[in-house]
Amino acid sequence: MWDCPNCNRAFERAKQQHSCSRITLGQHFKNKEKTKELFDYLIKQIGNRVGKYRIIPIPCCIHLFGAYDFLAALPKKDKLEIRFALNRIIDSPRLKQSVPISTKNFKNCFNIVTIREIDDELIKWLDESYHLKDKN
Q1: Cα torsion for 98, 104, 105, 106, to the nearest 10°?
Q2: pTM over 0.70
Q3: DSSP alpha helices (H): ranges in the chain?
Q4: Where along the chain do its domains lie?
Q5: Does the domain at residues 22-135 carry the CATH identifier 2.40.50?
Q6: CA dist list (Å): 32 to 39, 75, 122
Q7: pLDDT tens column, 58-75
């Protein structure tokens, strides 16, 4: 792991190319109260049921970092888009999109509109993503 000396973000590789720009969580959720409630509930579930993490807000999204950067959250006006890596495409009607990110892994994308969607199935997938590097 490598921490950028300018922005303190953690990366897998030394001197990984990135932007040191940051914004606050509040800026991500300005005029998005419903989405903030979804995010707060999601991170509470992750903390209670998956593991410890750091929140890293950057201009494009909010990253959750455990042993590695395992989740990206993109607050929208009426939903929370989340993206996380797995070594497979999730077979679910809930899946919005899946994109290969390496020869082994796929970025799986979901929209969360209600608290009910942050259920056992989703938390299981996030737990799998959180521990993905343990398996690779």
Answers
A1: 0
A2: yes
A3: 25-28, 33-49, 120-130, 132-135
A4: 22-135
A5: no
A6: 11, 8, 22
A7: 888 999 999 888 999 999
